[in-house]
Amino acid sequence: MNAEFRCSCPITSAIDMIGDKWSLVVIKNMLFFNLKTFKELSEANEKIATNILSSRLKGLEEKGFISKTKPSNNKKTNLYILTEKGLSLIPIIIELAIWGDTNLQNVHPSLDRDNPIEYIKLNKEKFVGVFKNQYLDNVAEITL
Q1: From CA 111, how far away is CA 68, in angstroms rounded?
Q2: Which of 1.10.10.10, 3.40.50.11810, 2.40.10.10, 3.40.720.10 would CATH assign to domain 10-143?
Q3: Rounded to two decimals, what is the model's pTM?
Q4: How far is the CA of 108 from the CAs of 102, 112, 113, 123, in angstroms?
Q5: What torsion do the CA atoms of 21, 5, 85, 49 make, to the nearest 10 degrees?
Q6: Engineering a disulfide at 86: which of 82, 124, 139, 141 sits with its beta carbon 3.0 to 4.6 angstroms away?
Q7: For 123-132, how does the pLDDT look when each residue is reduced to its tens digit (9 = 90+)?
Q8: How far is CA 92 from the centre of its chain?
Q9: Confidence of residue 1 (pLDDT cuts 50, 70, 90)
């Protein structure tokens, strides 16, 4: 068995890959807020420490969730782009959003209620495609 996995259970193994405190937050910020540089990601609302962000980006790249590239007009800046494997987490992130909206109101009264969760609940599959297509359109614009 690979040393990075605790056991052969697919749920536990998935948690071993993306279940730390920051990986899904980084992916969510890339996906929903079109953040693609280290600077943009470090300035996100969650205020991830730069050393932790650096570690998570490296780990997500090594695990195949993101790739790193440079824009043609600025060879000093790294762009972090979600791969197909990273984009395949969209349904999980949507389910977490719905679960959080449904189950955290009593323990987190300041939870953002100004969100599209009610619309997403009506047609989750449609929104998976919408989010993926919007992300891919944004990536296409910056990589041309």
Answers
A1: 33
A2: 1.10.10.10
A3: 0.85
A4: 11, 9, 11, 26
A5: 30
A6: 82
A7: 888 889 988 9
A8: 10
A9: very low
Confidence at 113, pLDDT banded by 50, 70, 90: low
The residue type at 87: L
**Pairwise CA distance, residues 66 & 137, whole Å:** 16
Please name the residues in contact with 117: beta carbons below 8 A apart, sequence gap of 6 or more. 97, 98, 101
Residue 56 is predicted with a pLDDT of 97
Measuring CA to CA, how many Å separate 85 from each of 8, 23, 60?
Answer: 20, 13, 10
The two structure tokens encoding residue 10: 């697919």
Domain segments of the chain: what residues?
10-143
